[in-house]
Amino acid sequence: MTELRLREAVIAAAREMNALGINRGTSGNVSARFTTPEFDGYLITPTGLPYAQMLPDDIVAMTIAGGDSHAGRLPSSEWRFHRDIYRTRPEIGAVVHTHARYATTLACMNRAIPPFHYMVAIAGGRDIRCAPYATFGTQALADHAIAALADRRACLLAHHGMIGIGATLEAALAVALEVETLAEMYWRLLRDGEPALLADAEMEITLEKFRTYGQPR
Ligand SMILES: [Zn+2]
Questions:
Q1: What pTM value is reported for the model?
Q2: Is 78 known to be catalytic?
Q3: What is the mean pLDDT of residues 135-159?
């Protein structure tokens, strides 16, 4: 994909995130890995600019090595966890961060999403972890996020929001949407107390089926 097409795709994914109802306003951010023979990095939404008026030139190119900006706009304040995901997860090509209502509600309760439904496995494991709180934009938050994302394609961020990652922008958006759907169900269930959970053996079967039938999007 050309750089221009990828810039357009990042903007489209950011708008889709809001259209799907998993983010509002200028919260959240989106990036996609961008590698050429001369450049090893990613393209990320800028800070504080409404997605409706975002143009390809507003997307910021960042290198994985130094995190330096090569464009006029400042990158999203959360560029550190985007950079560290690309740095540590070679299979990942896109990152979506949202303040989705139900995922964030659970995150504000410091709750991971346990295996109450088999689709929890869509994020890659038997649960969807909640990373401990750290101030937005800090390296501490990036470190917590990387740990919570180990062997996973999504995590919650305590008192903040959630992250979905995938090989493509479509895959990252899809897992973020599924996490929000699961978060809403789990939050509703919690109003009646802790729901029954699937056994680890059942989750293993589901994880294996997802592996066998290809990467869930
Ligand atoms: Zn955020």
A1: 0.95
A2: yes
A3: 98
